[in-house]
Predict the structure.
Amino acid sequence: MFDFQHITQETDLYNLHTHTQFCDGHAPMEEFVTEAIAMGFTHLGFTPHAPISVESPVNMSRETVQQYFDEMKRLRDTYGDRIHLYTSMEIDYVSVGDGPASDYFQQLPLDYRIGSVHFIPAIDNPAVMVDIDGKFTGFKARMGKYFNGDIEYVVKTFFSQMMSMVDEGGFDIVGHMDKIGFNASQYRDGIDEEPWFDKLVIDLFENIMDHHLAIEINTKAWLQRNRFYPNLKYFGMLKRFNAPVVINSDAHYPTLLNSGRMEAIKLMNIL
Ligand SMILES: [Zn+2]
Ligand SMILES: [Zn+2]
């Protein structure tokens, strides 16, 4: 288990969820490191979208993993005296045995692992995995094509995939735990306020706590969409149960390394 205790939430600037040239990030790793140092960060973790068994334009391939490790080593050698740099991946949960807990990911020399769900099975064909994480226009098109417009199936399947991922384990931080709420609420206004939706989030939260995993507060969408993952309304629950929380910007641009993080910290503090 990665030791988060050496990071002080209140005083240290950190980000443990960062995408670069190795997946769909928009700058090389080195630019994130120099920007982080300039911003006064003390800890920076890289999390390329890990190699995946399904068709995906954003995930890195197994062939580039060694290149990623080599670049990590070079950056640690160059900047390691100024900032703590961590080697990680954001690993997709696809199906039983195909996720963070797999032998492949367990044997990789990673400092910690983020587990996330970006794909769920099509409604009539579980062999077809469909991206439900992207922009709403694409999501809407896929709702018709793969899910017969059944938004409740999509939401329930997202959370059941999250539950299975937590049950199987093999990772340290749960990535954006209710992210489906954004696209789903665009598709059906207010769906994320309905009691059954709420219950899915709370059940997942309890399962995460039972498995002693850290919960990410993902701040990537705060400035543009006014939304955290998990949703702001769950911050009180995180505090009440003293959940281990990691506040990440899920940055794809160096300038956004701290985007939304201070706002999340402030809101956590006043709750
Ligand atoms: Zn993600
Ligand atoms: Zn990410």
Q: What stands out?
A: The mean pLDDT is 96.
